[in-house]
Structure formats: structure tokens, C-alpha cells
């Protein structure tokens, strides 16, 4: 076996990525070594730039390069409607459906007591304050709980529904129709679009 | 849709990687943005170091950090036996079987006339010279053609067999038993091990 400590180090770094096993890590490593210098430099530069420039929106916690984000500063959005999602990536997939015209609130995950993630680890108090205070001059009338349709996402939705209802807001949930047990991030746009338009009250 | 030019640039760079589609690129991008600074720095550093330190071995063209590579400078290898592979990654998988104790010759690809890859684009002349001259004081007695068991790999093997036989060397091929149409790189070690021990003469 050739001794290649720098190659082994690259393999180890690649294997830490989600969805990358030992074989795809090796494939990626060989590709990255053989790629032209410009392509490798572009990947390195793109990653460094993205990490430097993207920040969480101070209003909704989605990823943005300018604070507040495009959605929060768009005068055309329906301020009476707020969608609660787990991760910044979920904002992106919901936006792609063009079905939702309200604003977002990114929790930063889902409740997972066994892994020590309670309401204090998520942007929950922040959400309650937003709903209680209203968006600018506008009262929030409906909160759509768009957490993932799996155990953690469902229990997060139930928890949030219990906390939100005393504020006199309508609380809705994405329609089932999403494949149960899956992650929002991987749903196709048509299914997700239908899940938004068929949302049900909790 | 939030305007995120740096994120879009990272996505584009990730989508160029082999085996990474739009959805896994998005997943990787979000992971890389959310990862701790140390982890991102390690990935960037590992890639830069691997690209800087690994060079092709001047004897066999495998990847190495010192020239000649470990295999070519190992006095315990059987110099009468030479395995011809397409890519540096293939040396690694063959080494893992512990079934092959000779040296290697990396072609740098397979013949693909439609994509303009002929013998001159590969390390073919180089291979013929090695076999004609012998390894050090030792005559090369057998060349094992370990190209991929797909159309391009098979025709490369047939071409090389025709060029090598006039040199009075025994030319062998990996046993079929490898799933036809697949790539060497993804074979499991047991199958590949059997393919080495059952190699047949061409």
C-alpha cells in the first residue's frame, strides 16, 4: 500500500461529509487530485466565500448575505402568514414551490430530548415573541408548522401548536401527502406544493 | 427566493463533483456552511496539502508523495509481474486485496477513440519500453491487464495484448467474475481478489 498521508487526511475529511461513504470519499479524493488547478481553486474559494458572506437573518434565521434577508425585506410578502421550518435549507425548498407567500421562521432544528435538544436550543421564544408582537404593523394570523413529517418534526409541531394557540393565532400543519418518515429537504416540488395548499388546522 | 450569490457559487462548484447531483450538492453546501470553522478549515487544508504533495510516480504513474512510489521502491515485490491499470485509484484497490505482489503501470485512462483518447494519450509507449527493458536486472515475465471490465477497458486490454505479445511476455487478464459493465474501483475486495487469482492468459 503506498504511503500517502496527505491523501489519507483528505479521505478522512471527505468521509465526514453527510452522504459520503468510504467509496465515494475515495472517488471524490481522486477526482479532486486530478482536477485542473482552476477547478480545485474555485471549490476552495467558493467554500471560503460562502462561509464568510452568508449570515443568519436576524429576523427569521434563514441564510442571507444581507440582513434582513430578501424574504423579510420583501414588501410583497403576506405578513399575516408565518411558516416555521427546521433548517435554512427548508426555506429554500418551500420558496421553490411558489405556493407560500408569507414569511419564515427557522427553528435551527427539531426537539430531540434524547439528544439534549429542548426548546431553549431552538429559536422558540423568538418565534413566540414575533407572533405576539406582530410583523411590523401587521398581526400574524396564521402560523404554518412546516417541520419535517417524522417523529421529531411532528412532536416539535405539537409542542409549538400548544405554545402558539394561547396567542390567538391559527395554527396549521403541512398536509400529509408528504411521504411519512422522509425529510422535507428531499421532497419533490409538486408534492410539497400540494402539502402547502392542503395545510390543515391543528 | 433569497439572493445568495456566494451560496449559488458553492452549489455550482459542488455539483461539478462526480456522483453529486443538485440535491446532494445542496445538502453538502448547507452542511459545509453550518460546520464548525475547524472542520471546514481541515477540509480546505487537507485538499490543498494533498494537491501539493501528491505527485505521479515517475516509474509507474501511481500517486505518491515520494518518487519513486512505495511499491516501485519495495525490494519485496515480484519484478517479473506487472499489472496494468487505468487509474491511480485502481492501484489502491488492487493493493487492498493482498493478492497481487508484482508492480504496477498506470495508463492514465482507457482507449476511447470517440473521445479522442488513443494510445498516445495514455502511458502505452512507456509500458512497452518498461517490458522490453525489464525491471532493473529482472525480465518481466507476465503482464496482467487489469483494466476495467467494460467496453473501453476490454478493448484497451485487447490492444495492449497485441502490442505486448511480440515482446515475448505472457499476457493475462483479470478473471471474469467481476460484474461486467462495472468499474474496478467499486468492486468488493473478495470478488477482486478472486479475479486476480483466476487471471487467464490472452
Description:
The structure is a homodimer of 202-residue chains. Chain A has helices spanning 5-15, 22-34, 37-53, 88-97, 124-133, 151-164, 189-197, and strands at 55-56, 63-64, 81-85, 103-106, 142-145, 170-173, 200-201. By secondary structure, chain A is of the alpha/beta class. In chain A, strands 4-3-5-6-7 form a 5-stranded mixed sheet. Chain A has a two-stranded antiparallel sheet with strand order 1-2. In chain A, α1 crosses α2 (22-34) and α4 crosses α7 (189-197).
Instruction: Specify the biggest β-sheet of chain A.
Output: 5 strands, mixed
Mean pLDDT of chain A: 88
Task: State the order of secondary-structure elements of chain A, H for helix, E for strand.
Answer: HHHEEEHEHEHEHE
Rg calculated over all Cα atoms of chain A: 20 Å
Strand residue content of chain A:
5-15%
Number of strands of chain A: 7
> Level of helix content of chain A?
40-55%
How are the SSEs ordered, and which strands pair?
2 copies of one chain form a homodimer.
Chain A: H1 5-15, H2 22-34, H3 37-53, E1 55-56, E2 63-64, E3 81-85, H4 88-97, E4 103-106, H5 124-133, E5 142-145, H6 151-164, E6 170-173, H7 189-197, E7 200-201
Parallel strand pairs in A: 3-4, 3-5, 5-6
Antiparallel strand pairs in A: 1-2, 6-7
Amino acid at each position: 500500500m503506498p504511503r500517502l498521508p496527505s491523501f489519507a487526511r483528505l479521505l478522512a475529511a471527505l468521509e465526514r461529509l453527510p452522504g459520503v461513504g468510504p467509496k465515494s470519499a475515495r472517488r471524490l479524493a481522486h477526482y479532486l487530485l486530478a482536477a485542473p488547478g482552476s477547478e480545485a481553486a474555485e471549490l476552495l474559494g467558493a467554500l471560503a466565500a460562502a462561509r464568510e458572506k452568508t449570515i443568519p437573518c436576524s429576523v427569521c434565521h434563514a441564510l442571507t448575505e444581507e440582513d434582513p434577508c430578501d424574504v423579510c425585506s420583501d414588501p410583497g410578502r403576506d405578513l399575516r402568514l408565518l411558516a416555521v421550518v427546521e433548517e435554512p435549507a427548508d426555506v429554500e425548498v418551500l420558496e421553490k414551490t411558489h405556493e407560500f407567500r408569507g414569511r419564515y421562521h427557522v427553528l435551527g432544528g427539531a426537539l430531540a430530548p434524547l439528544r439534549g435538544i429542548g426548546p431553549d436550543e431552538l429559536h422558540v421564544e423568538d418565534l413566540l415573541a414575533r407572533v405576539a408582537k406582530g410583523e411590523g404593523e401587521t398581526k400574524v394570523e396564521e402560523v404554518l408548522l412546516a417541520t419535517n413529517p417524522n417523529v421529531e418534526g411532528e412532536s416539535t409541531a405539537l409542542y409549538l401548536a400548544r405554545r402558539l394557540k394561547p396567542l390567538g393565532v391559527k395554527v396549521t400543519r403541512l398536509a400529509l401527502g408528504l411521504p411519512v418518515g422522509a425529510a422535507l429537504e428531499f421532497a419533490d416540488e409538486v408534492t410539497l406544493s400540494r402539502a402547502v395548499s392542503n395545510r390543515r388546522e391543528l
